[in-house]
Write a structure and sequence with these properties.
alpha/beta, Alpha/beta knot
């Protein structure tokens, strides 16, 4: 089975990326970091959040999303945002998919969302008092649903 791919566009908070790296190591998922990072890959908080699992992470860095998409060879991209109503539970994930998250403070660019309306999804939240979930929490929720959908948790 092809691995899933988690894509972080310009992540800003090292522990979030470290936690997601650990998630990727645990699930055999490829981690893609795109654009300008808000930290160094040598950051001690990044390394600490990933603990001693970094050797098991397939990590790829990209200058921009377009370069990653060109290299992905026609694989599907899903964009997670708080700006739509369609639930990630309706996404119909398949192995090899790319699950894309934006930076912690701004999310994904509006232009990207507008150009990909059919593949934009959200994590529904019953409370309107919270704007969004933590990035690493969101990545875990969506990735595990993708794995569940394709039988990758057995």
């Amino acid at each position: 089975m092809k691995p899933y791919n988690i894509v972080l566009i310009e992540p800003e908070i090292p522990p979030n990326t470290g936690n997601i790296a650990r998630l990727c190591a645990a699930t055999g998922t490829v981690l893609h970091l795109v654009g300008k990072l808000g930290f160094s890959l040598d950051d001690r908080y990044l390394k600490r959040a990933g603990l001693d699992y970094w050797e098991f992470v397939t990590l790829k860095t990209w200058p921009d999303l377009e370069t990653l998409q060109a290299a992905a060879g026609g694989e599907r991209f899903f964009y997670l945002t708080t700006k739509v109503k369609r639930s990630y539970l309706d996404a119909g994930f398949q192995p090899g998919d790319y699950i894309v998250f934006g930076k912690e403070t701004k999310g994904l660019p509006v232009e990207l969302l507008e150009a990909n309306t059919e593949t934009c999804f959200t994590i529904p939240m019953p409370s309107e008092k919270v704007r969004s979930l933590n990035l690493s929490t969101s990545a875990g929720i969506v990735l595990y649903e993708a794995l569940r959908q394709c039988g990758g948790l057995s």
